[in-house]
Amino acid sequence: MNSAGRATDLLDMSAGTLTKLVASRQVSPVEIVEASLNRIEAINPDLNAFCLVLGDEARAAARAAEAAVMAGHKLGPLHGIPIGIKDLTPTRNHRTTSGSKAYRDYIAPEHAVIAQSLINAGAILVGKTTTPEFAYSGFTYSPLWGITRNPWDRTRTSGGSSGGSGVAVATGCVPLAEGSDMGGSVRIPASCCGITGLKPSLGRIPFTILRSTFETLAHFGPLARSCDDAALFLSAAQGPNEADILSNPQPIAFPPTLACDPRRLKIALSIDLGFYGVDPEVERNTREMADRLRSLGAEVEEVSLGWTFESVLAWDRRWNVYIATHYGHLLDEHRHDLDPEVVRIIEKGNRTSAVEAKRTEFVATDMWRKLSAILSHYDAMICPTLARPMGLAEATDRTSGGFDKEGRYLGTTMTTPFNLVSQCPVLSVPSGFTSGSLPTGLQIVGRRFDDLTVLQVGRLLEESWGETGFPRPPRI
């Protein structure tokens, strides 16, 4: 096989497979990283997955990783694996802009805890992935970096706010990338890009990049091409860590394999969460995934969750206050640099009273009581990730919404409500394709802190696609 063919084969491999090949000296980290950088060079001008590429630094780290293998040193679980880290997350001595012109020259002095954990596990950072300004949107666009496009159809959005990470993984630039999720920002790009994305349970991965460590919307999570790789990422990045008071003190003891007996599983199915108007093709694919689980021996029953549109309004209020709190100070000096939508959100947040913000907890409490009643009888619940196929690349969060004649909400993202009941892990996996060959996604919602079960259910669905797992986008 020629070198180009071997490089393509490497890029198609899982992180777990690559670590075994590195440890057995069959593949060098130098070779993997070089293939990764070449792939980034090929796709980035068209898709805009990376806003910073660390070629020389990554090559030096790969040479050091190779030397450690040859010297027989103990290797970490991600040794020699190229990764992307979102531009929102600080990494030492690198420009970290959060997608904003206001921070275009900011150089982070230290790694965030998650970045340090991944590097300590042997991962090699090849670049920072694009994000909308302050990760505010389900579409990846910013005044600083422009639009990140979808690898299945470049006229479509990659999703957001971890759209750059989603594209980086889907196109094979890296087998793993880090994302953050406060309203679906890992799961939305996973669905749009046809890959796997996990919002872990609250505190599973320490979240230390905000001035407040009491922000219950906030999660870090992996974007990957398989559930095994998502679990590998989670095992390396999970806490606890005293820098985050909300970090979970009981890390998951991962078994040797995610394989499980589907016959022991009881799964609830909700098509609409109680109030969404779901596209017929999305519903078809969701029901197909339920049927796949049934064919494997799992018990799947449709349930009525009974959530209402008030859950969307409650998340919106929380989000407006969050953006205003953390970024409102920039208005005085940088108003004309900021995305106009960010300015609008800040101003809405400034107008929200403390009582209005606190009352969102009443909504979340009602949501939790309804969801917990279901999860007390079922191991997990499945539902769509997005209510309709992904929008155009130039679209915004404000271009969807409204209600149909039956009063069903016509918003796209079915992710935000689960950040209000944030102790529950939620995994997005591919659920099929539309008639226009666009991927759709399925959310798997777990009991509080039961990240392992959602990954096991996801792996069952992944295996149902056959030996090659979930389909991948065409090579560009």
Key terms:
single chain; 476 residues; alpha/beta; Amidase signature (AS) enzymes; eleven-stranded mixed sheet; two-stranded antiparallel ribbon; globular
Beta fraction: 5-15%
Give the name of the CATH superfamily: Amidase signature (AS) domain
Following the backbone from N to C, one meets helices and strands in this order, namely HHHEHEHEEEHEHEEHEHEHHHHEHEEH
| Overall shape | globular
Strand order of the largest sheet: 1-3-2-6-8-7-12-13-11-9-10
Total DSSP E strands:
13
What do we call the CATH topology? Amidase signature (AS) enzymes
Distance between the termini: 21 Å
Please render the helix and strand layout as text.
Layout: H1 3-12, H2 15-23, H3 29-47, E1 50-53, H4 55-70, E2 82-86, H5 113-120, E3 124-129, E4 141-142, E5 146-147, H6 163-170, E6 176-181, H7 187-193, E7 196-199, E8 219-224, H8 227-237, E9 266-269, H9 280-296, E10 299-302, H10 310-327, H11 331-334, H12 340-351, H13 354-375, E11 380-384, H14 417-420, E12 426-433, E13 439-446, H15 451-463
Parallel strand pairs: 2-3, 2-6, 9-10, 9-11
Antiparallel strand pairs: 1-3, 4-5, 6-8, 7-8, 7-12, 11-13, 12-13
Outline of the structure:
With 476 residues, this protein is α/β, with parallel strands linked by helices.
Molecular structure report:
It is a single chain. The protein is built from 15 helices and 13 strands. The chain is an alpha/beta fold and 476 residues long. It has a single domain, classed as Alpha-Beta Complex (Amidase signature (AS) enzymes), CATH 3.90.1300. An eleven-stranded mixed β-sheet has the order 1-3-2-6-8-7-12-13-11-9-10, with helices on both faces. Strands 4-5 form a two-stranded antiparallel sheet. A hairpin with a 5-residue loop joins β12 (426-433) and β13 (439-446). α1 packs across α3 and α8 runs antiparallel to α15. The radius of gyration is 21 Å and the shape is globular. The model has no long low-confidence stretch (mean pLDDT 96).
